[in-house]
Amino acid sequence: MPYPLNTGANQRIYHVLRALSRLGHITFACPTEGGRWPSELDAVQPLFQQALLYPNESFDASGPARSDGLFDRLSRLARYHGHLREPALIRWYRSPQGAQVIANACQQGFDLIWVERLISIGLLPGNVGCRVILDLDDVQYRKLGHRLRRTGPGLRTALDLVEFLKLRRMERGLVRHGPHEYVVCSALDKQILGGESRIWVVPNGIEMPTEPAWRPSDVADPSFVFVGAMSTEANVDAVQFFVRQILPRIRRVMPRARTLIVGSRPTPEVLALHDGHSVVVTGTVPAVEPFLQDATMTVVPIRFGGGTRIKILEALAHGVPVVSTRIGAEGLEVEHDRHLLLADTPEQFADACI
Known about the structure:
By secondary structure, the protein is an alpha/beta fold. Helix content is 36%, strand content 15%. It has helices at 8-21, 70-81, 88-92, 96-106, 140-151, 157-177, 187-192, 233-253, 268-271, 289-294, 310-317, 346-353; strands at 27-32, 50-55, 112-116, 131-135, 181-184, 199-201, 223-227, 258-262, 279-283, 297-300, 322-324, 341-342. The two termini are 38 Å apart.
């Protein structure tokens, strides 16, 4: 669902859809709750002529929650991770109902099918008879590789390592031997995938404000803002890293420093960081601009991930200072000490913020 425009993923999909709508008639296929028309789709309706909706609940990942029983947990692991070649990520997002909706639509005949994200590839029929572009907004195997290097050995390590190898084989194989064309967010991602001629770089972008709304705040009472979907593992790790290891160092110098965590669907781990004073978790907000206007700076303490950070583009567009890890700013044409400050260790990141 490409709306509301309060996450980077939504913004990318929305702007791609808007650009394609200028070229011809659009049939828009999307999973929604219960397969019903949601109110959020009203804002996008002018961009397409036909909508095909199928239920979120039809995805394997939306099945019954994991039971506490050992046998049930082992069965679930075997179901998703037991396949020799197919990644668990793809198996989670299998939807026979969604695939049937797409297959029926393909009988109409299209000039182009634009597929958003690797997880959607399983919805596409084998032979569609037209041009297909797959938007790899993240290189999934590389994102998982970052996390494996960052988190070290644990209970999930063996499964994650196998998943990494499966995803790498699949993503590289798609680009080198697949019949389609591919879009990535940055020249770095294109290079990582082999620099094939069928890979196009379509950078992320945002709507430019008419004028930067940011104004410097009182440095004695600084406010640090993190923006992102708070159900995403990389974002959850980032805010935990900031609040637990970086913010205490900042508060030794600036005791009144506070952090705002702005984003939809915060997990229990994120909600546990909220104390209502030094750390505030907002949950879903209709727009991030008011928080950027009041922020001293935007922090991007991302330690693993892929694609490029729309949260950095938003901050720069509004004139808000940014401190980011190198992975957080990866793929963007920005320079340390010119456009933003880059730091990776807790000590370096705290010093950069101060």
